[in-house]
Amino acid sequence: MLELDGGAGGGQQVRTALSLAAVEGRSIRVENVRAERPDPGLKAQHVAAIEAVAAATEATVEGVEEGGDAFTFEPTAPPGGEFAVDVGTAGSATLVCDALLPLAVALDEPLSVRIRGGTDVKWSPPADYLLHAKLPLLRGLGVDADVAVERRGFYPTGGGTLSLTLRPSTLSAVDLRERGPVEGLSARAVASDSLESASVAERMCETVDDRTAVPTETAAAYAETSSPGAVLTLVADCCDSRAGFGVLGERGVPSESVAERAVEAFREWRATGAAVDEHLGDQLLPWVALAGGAVRTPRVTDHVRTNAAVIRAFGYELEITETDRGAVASAPLER
């Protein structure tokens, strides 16, 4: 059994460890889970991710409970099946998807999962970021996956639902060293229907249009939700890559200010030499390890360092090199 120390990192370490263990059919024990975080231990979304990957691999697990500081995961079957998982809170449903997506490379049959929780919440990628920034890049690598948003879920109630379908996939090498010119932007604003009278979604989109010199496709929509909320997701479509920037609405913060934050994040990224945004750079590391190749990110963050440490513990040769144009994560094409 591979033993891992999760003390220095956060939930990404847990998700990466689960994904690689499932792909390799390898048993793991993770100790000191999120020990250095202000709120250490497993949270609801981490428990849901473990339960989802365990269901897909008929795994035996121990210590999987909210607040738990250690757990074991022992897969007994190749990934596959059809099931549902409920985070039980507004914890991130998109991050549960994040743990499941790499299983596509080990599938012999399709995998279908309905995930109930928060679709657009703090400290996680919004649903439209997953759909329009990350998934297109993964499909370019050969990942056969679809995600549908059945219902939006905002904090504090959650109550959203995502439907994930994975099919057996064969990866091609990651080639994201260069991004090419930014060919266009898409701005997708979604707000609760209770905010429609204030034109929250339209105002977000109009601000993006006013603040960027890049051709922008905008879409404003409203949805029935259990808790009121709003989210804007800005996606940069480049010649060879993509980047996404998601910002949640906040009570008392004008819609225009929310949109300006997304535009500023885009501008900061564009000024770098990175092919993807900071969060994608972190999330793509397991894919670089599995497929080989390289990705250029804006910088080396603590998330990148701790995520890379987990990947190397599985025996992958993942190298992180800092340059004046960002950081490059690379791995051999053959392991």
From TrEMBL:
Entry EC no(s): 6.5.1.4
Catalysis: reaction(s): a 3'-end 3'-phospho-ribonucleotide-RNA + ATP = a 3'-end 2',3'-cyclophospho-ribonucleotide-RNA + AMP + diphosphate
Stretch forming the signal peptide: none
Main localization (coarse): cytoplasm
GO molecular function: RNA-3'-phosphate cyclase activity
Chain residues that bind ATP: 98, 279-283
Domain RNA 3'-terminal phosphate cyclase insert: 178-269
Major enzyme class: ligase
Keywords from the named record: ATP-binding, Cytoplasm, Ligase, Nucleotide-binding
Keyword Ligase recorded: yes
Domain RNA 3'-terminal phosphate cyclase: 7-314
Catalytic site: 303 (tele-amp-histidine intermediate)
Cellular localisation: Cytoplasm
Chain's role: Catalyzes the conversion of 3'-phosphate to a 2',3'-cyclic phosphodiester at the end of RNA. The mechanism of action of the enzyme occurs in 3 steps: (A) adenylation of the enzyme by ATP; (B) transfer of adenylate to an RNA-N3'P to produce RNA-N3'PP5'A; (C) and attack of the adjacent 2'-hydroxyl on the 3'-phosphorus in the diester linkage to produce the cyclic end product. The biological role of this enzyme is unknown but it is likely to function in some aspects of cellular RNA processing.
Family membership noted in the UniProt record: Belongs to the RNA 3'-terminal cyclase family. Type 1 subfamily.
Name of the protein this chain belongs to: RNA 3'-terminal phosphate cyclase
Organism listed in the record: Halogeometricum luteum
Gene it is expressed from: rtcA
